[in-house]
Design brief:
about 90% helix; mainly alpha; rod-shaped; about 170 residues; about 0% strand
Length: about 170
């Protein structure tokens, strides 16, 4: 019995749609129907453009949000890495200073020890420099030194490269 009611309901909706279509066709000319169809198509195209624009804005917003999150994480990681590197450099500076002091304690007052004392002084100064400077300060100091003495820097780097190359390929 429910099946017959559904058939009747579907049939009555189909009859209503058919009568509306027939009425529309009788009351409008072909040009009016074409204009109505064109208006509907324009409206649908406008709606589609609006939805695509909204979707593009949403995608752009999401991309900006992701880029912002990536930037924040990179800054955070960079800050943490810089802090760790500064700690290592400070510790290294302390060890270099301690080495200079240990060398100075074992020297006597003869001529050969003057060179040893000079080396100990250089180690202590280097250690204090490493303790006082952060990574950015050391980087800036190296840049100034390279700009001030470019030929000496090239010769030193060539010598270090030669020594490392000999050690590696031995």
């Amino acid at each position: 019995m429910d099946l017959r009611r559904n058939e009747w309901a579907i049939g009555s909706h189909a009859d209503d749609a058919a009568s509306q279509s027939t009425s529309y066709l009788r009351s409008h000319s072909v040009n009016e129907m074409a204009d109505d169809a064109r208006d509907k198509v324009d409206e649908m195209a406008s709606d589609a453009r609006d939805k695509v624009g909204e979707m593009a804005d949403d995608v752009r917003d999401k991309a900006d949000e992701v880029a912002s999150n990536v930037r924040e994480k990179a800054d955070e990681v960079g800050t943490q890495a810089s802090a760790k590197i500064n700690g290592v450099v400070n510790g290294t500076g302390q060890q270099v200073s301690n080495l200079g002091q240990a060398i100075r304690k074992r020297t006597t007052k003869n001529r050969a020890d003057k060179a040893t004392n000079a080396a100990a002084d250089a180690l202590e100064r280097s250690g204090r420099y490493l303790q006082d400077q952060d990574v950015n300060g050391i980087h800036g100091g190296l840049e100034k030194m390279i700009c001030r003495y470019p030929i000496a820097t090239l010769l030193i780097s060539a010598g270090i490269s030669f020594i490392l190359g000999r050690r590696i390929f031995r």
